[in-house]
Sequence to fold (54 residues):
Amino acid sequence: MSYGTPVVSYATGGIPEIVDHGRDGLLVPPKDTVEMAAAILRLLRDRKRLHPTD
Fold:
């Protein structure tokens, strides 16, 4: 994140306090591998969605 790279992570522990969903990256429900894969694909297909100034 410090390099401006969006993250895809499970919304567990303290991660939701660090990652602003939709701004810094995408958060998915814990242990939901299908949603994790979908979030990764969503980010790869639409990178400008998270960083419109890039």
About this structure: The chain is about 30% helix and 15% strand. The first strand starts at residue 7 and ends at 10.
